[in-house]
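Worked example 4.2. Below are the chains of a multi-component assembly; read each line carefully before continuing.
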Amino acid sequence: MEDAPRRTPLFGIPIDGGGWIFLAVVIAVTIAVPVLNLATEPGSAFHVPTYLVPLLGKYLCYALLAVAVDLVWGYCGILSLGHGAFFALGGYAMGMYLMREIGPRGVYGNANLPDFMVFLNWKELPWFWYGFDIFPFAMLMVLLVPGVLALVFGWLAFRSRVTGVYLSIITQALTFALMLAFFRNNMGFGGNNGLTDFKDILGFNLQSDETRAALFIASGIALALGYLVCRYIVTSKLGRVVAAIRDAESRTRFLGYRVEHYKLFVFVVSAVLAGIAGALYVPQVGIINPSEFSPANSIEIVVWVALGGRGTLFGAALGAVLVNYGKSYFTGAFPDLWLFILGGLFIFVTLFMPKGVVGSIREGLAGGRGLISRKRDEAPSPGAFAGSPGE
Amino acid sequence: MKRAAFLLLLALAVLVPRPSFAQDIEAAINALGQGSFNERTSAANALAQTGDQRAVPVLKALGDRELYLRKADNKVFIGRTVSGTVTLIDPVTGKEAGVSTGGDIEGVKVNNALRRTIEALLGGLTLLSSDPAVRRDAATAMFNQPDPEALGTLDAAIAKETDPAIKAKMDEARAAAVLKSSRPDAEKIAAVKILGARGDQASLSLLQNLEASAQGDLKAAAAEAIEDVSGALALWNNVQNLWYGISLGSVLLLAAIGLAITFGVMGVINMAHGEMVMIGAYTTFFVQELFRAHAPEAFDYSLFVALPAAFAVAGLVGIAMERGIIRFLYGRPLETLLATWGISLMLQQTVRSLFGPSNREVGTPSWMSGTVEITNGLTLTSNRIAIVVFTAIVFIALMLVMRFTRFGLQMRAVTQNRPMANSVGIRSGWVDAMTFGLGSAIAGVAGVALSQIDNVSPNLGQSYIIDSFLVVVFGGVGNLWGTLVGAMSLGILNKFLEPWAGAVLGKILILVMVILFIQRRPRGLFALKGRSVEA
Amino acid sequence: MEPATGKIVPNETLLYLDGVSVSFDGFKALNNLSLYVTAGEMRAIIGPNGAGKTTMMDVITGKTRPDTGEVLFRGAIDLTQRDEADIARLGIGRKFQKPTVFEGHTVFENLELALKSPRGIFDTLFAKLKGEQAARIAETLQIIGLAADQGRPAGALSHGQKQWLEIGMLLIQEPDLLLVDEPVAGMTDAETERTAELLRHIAQTRSVVVVEHDMEFVRALGVRVTVLHEGSVLSEGSLDKVQNDQKVIEVYLGR
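Applying the procedure described above to all three chains together yields the following structure tokens:
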């Protein structure tokens, strides 16, 4: 209310200053990177080398994943340590389409079976692979598989009021169980090798610069749209209910809101966004394997969000890019140091920067202007995360 | 005891048939050296018929191709070959009878048929040995290779056997042989009963073979016995699974019990708990390296040094963590979770830098290797037994500390009502540090035990952390008994699921079950009820 | 003052508890408690610590399931079969002992969340504040005296203001029955007086059950009083009658 003038709406969605900057940067990058890659000569000073396009595209997918995690953690207080599972499931759905797209061009030249099934002496395609040769069906599965899993899991968990660290632990157990399952050869998803050796998508060669540019643009658009969807949700009345649940769950319940439905809604939306991120990620990195399900991956997503600033959406995206850039740099230059840095980041952020980069900057700005009032979508004081407050 | 053994030997010496003439056995032995395989088979049989124990080494030597014929006089000797020269030993007297370089002797040949006969004959012969252990082994061997031909020998041996345990084994061997023979059905039915009473996998397959070919009463008796045996086997199978379950449960309990203190009692989510276990395991490795370098003869005792060392090292690391980081995050469980995860990454990398990324070899002391046989088919490995016992000791010790020491009292006071504890003069900060240190130290001690059954690598802790949390949450937070029951039920459930679901799928099923269970009872098996819980 | 046993609920009875027992690990928090509140009535519940006051509120609002006993609302609705959200939607509002407002939300948003309106996900996802709803919020802001603070985060309010905001949230929720737990604990005298006035205002149009320790406050409300002790009703009647009840005196002073 009080800061309404500072929010300029886009399609009726109120966007704050940071949000506009974020959208502008995403759109600029989405246009600039493919253009500078395709339209300039390799020797030019403005040229974006081809190897960078999928790498940056990967960052965009991670950023979308971080936005999805921020929606549940930052706004609803659900610390999911299993979001990597939804990301990976979206990725596997896309990977299955890409495997079917290989057709008879595999090592064994079998048009009906992916190579790994031929290798395992399977005679026919398992039923759950049916339809994945059809792109729209596969895309539907990208949305449905993570969404339905989140719906079932969330329904069970929220209905029985599993909250706080208990929820975190069982989400971690969920992704761990999925990892073990996908490592099994007879699950029919390629065992520990996963799905790889993709050739093309919708008939376009995955190795070509143009396809890569298109995937990059798709990732940029998905990130911008994902941000807008989340922004719409958190600024709607539903967003205020969700934040109320985060801050005082029982109180919200006594106001007549069915808390489990609200949690389920944001959890499912978040899982679907994570699935989309995974689906865009796989064709750009060229592989999906069960290690994507590892609990360590999921918990790493959380530190992106924490570093960037939870409860800010674009801060989460920023955190994803920062941490992953750091990872790319350090694992190349000082591989032994990376885990120290990542581990130190977890400790530093929780101890000294609980609001993350964006939260701290905002606080700095607010302090500078002498403003005391808090924005309504800002992260609450850390204590509010302890679970439902006592009554 | 000695006197009894002496009397027994004396009795055996009288009972074992003595050859009337040395020439008989000598002739029988020499007969082995000539003729066709068939003739030599008969000769071997004849030799065994003498019942003379001196036939045993001869037949063994024949089977091992260590029997030689001296061409000069067609006498047969046992030969021991040492670097190209053969020392000949007179089989009758057991004395050396010269050395040969090979030209004047030739090896007595055997074929497979003859070798099988020899084995059966040896079984029969050794049944009459004066050494009970040899007789027992012989009876076991004959049970495994039932031979109707040996029935006579068996009957003779059974008649003379005085040790009831060995006699029972001989009866079983006889029964097995009877089933293969052409004896009348009545006798076979008696044999079926004996095998049914034995009730192991081997008797089951013998009985199943019989049932397939038999008719009438015999078939019915066999079927009945098969049912009994299958039932008994299923029971033993369950006992075995139960043991494996308890063994796995102990491992889970060891890994989780420190967490039951830090998470269950203090409410601190320590994601670096697994790394405390890992530190304990690496301390074991380090202590053992010291032993290997300085006191290899005392290596068997290295674990007794490693235990206090791991307790101290992991405990100190835990106290440092609590004072340095965790105490600033009390009341913020999700932040604690993230910060301790960060610590766990750093600890892993530290160990990786110090000891390298690959598995390190931790030795098992001799008293922990080997197996203990409880009964037919149920053998327990010593290291598993040691771990179960060790876990029980740790658990009981911890219970005693919590219940009967001043520190335990202060710990419970602080966790129940911190301001009140402060006001009665307990330094709650000190108690927090000590409690966290204790939980970590126990994790370190668990690491010593787990180093005996698992790979010691920087990732060791990671493989236990999720299981440990599930155990604590499943059992009910804040309750050591709950942790015990939680660990044992998950361990046993896992081992009973494994046979039909496979190891990985079994584990997945467990995870799914625990997830569902937590949803039904969000506060675990042994949950406290009431308003105080929700505050 | 036990209500007549049997299943028939008098027409004017809004809330009806009969033979309700709750135990936690062997401790009987409520022991065969029977109580009814008629429509439009204001009732004060007093009792020493552990008498079962808060547990009674928990049972009525669906937070705790009773082991035995009946809890009926508006004659026929069995509250023991419903959850908190359901019961709130039926028209039972609850104010907690500790003021619980949404501290990260503004005063205005707190009222907006409490405003009687559809509570479904998609209702809120696409909700637009209508003119009459805004007017209702403005009116409530006036009643609770926080119109000037509507844009401030609720966390920045004083203790008394938070209490009033919470009462305002209950008002705007338009419940038929309001349960209020120790509304004046920790308040200044002026604040206490203002709160009593607010509650009397509310009670004009709906039933109110107030749990309170402060006898002056109960006297200021001037309503029928029920004394709870060890999970059951010890005495009921006017404050004067109750204060002279020998059993009550024993419980409060005798030990």
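Take a moment to check your reading of the output against the notes. Chain B has 22 helices and seven strands. The first strand of chain B starts at residue 67 and ends at 70.
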